[in-house]
Design goal:
By secondary structure, the protein is mainly beta. The protein is built from 1 helix and 15 strands; from the N terminus they run H-E-E-E-E-E-E-E-E-E-E-E-E-E-E-E.
Length: about 190
């Protein structure tokens, strides 16, 4: 009789834990938007302003915008896919330097608890483009496609708002430009809905 009661208790406890896990992950699919800043990589070009100031355009800089979807597999694991726009530019009335790319990222995450998760994955860029116009130095060219590694740590203030720190290990094989180191660190905020 004791074995029977123990078996029933174990089954009920397991069902209760499974139910609690299902409730903790109410909406497994959520969309996200975000923005961030990044720093690093080689200097691609330098803008010289009439005032004497100068500004470097970096391969790992400066601002990025994110849109994508996050799918929670269970309480501990999730996957995320995003489309991004990453740009660094130096602009003035008489000219502009710009380095832009459109990365696609797929990352897997391990949730340490309800507030923290750590992730790693891949970033694909079909071609990055350096361009100039006006009085800016004459530079330009597109890079070959590249696949890079990404690691991130994210903290959720509330389930809908997260802040990430990340590192991207990236290199571009450039057509018309030298090979470029674009390794960079970034920090961003995301809104999940």
């Amino acid at each position: 009789m004791k074995k029977f009661v123990f078996a029933i208790s174990t089954i009920l406890a397991t069902m209760g834990a499974a139910q609690a896990q299902t409730q903790a992950v109410e909406r497994p699919l959520r969309f996200l938007v975000g923005t961030g800043v990044s720093h690093g990589g080689d200097t691609l070009a330098t803008a010289e302003y009439e005032s004497g100031w100068s500004r470097d355009v970096k391969a790992g800089g400066l601002v990025y915008f994110t849109f994508g979807a996050n799918y929670r597999l269970d309480e501990e694991f999730s996957i995320q896919g995003t489309l991004n726009y990453h740009v660094d530019d130096a602009s003035a009335k008489n000219g502009k330097l710009k380095f832009e790319r459109f990365p696609v990222e797929v990352l897997g995450y391990y949730h340490m608890d309800e507030n923290w998760r750590v992730g790693a994955g891949l970033r694909y860029i079909k071609s990055a483009k350096l361009s100039s116009d006006g009085a800016a130095p004459d530079v330009g060219g597109k890079s070959d496609s590249t696949v890079s590694g990404v690691v991130e740590l994210e903290y959720f203030f509330i389930p809908q708002v997260g802040m990430k720190v990340r590192y991207v290990k990236e290199k571009f094989k450039a057509a018309g430009m030298r090979d470029v180191n674009a390794d960079h660190f970034g920090i961003s905020g995301n809104f999940y809905f």
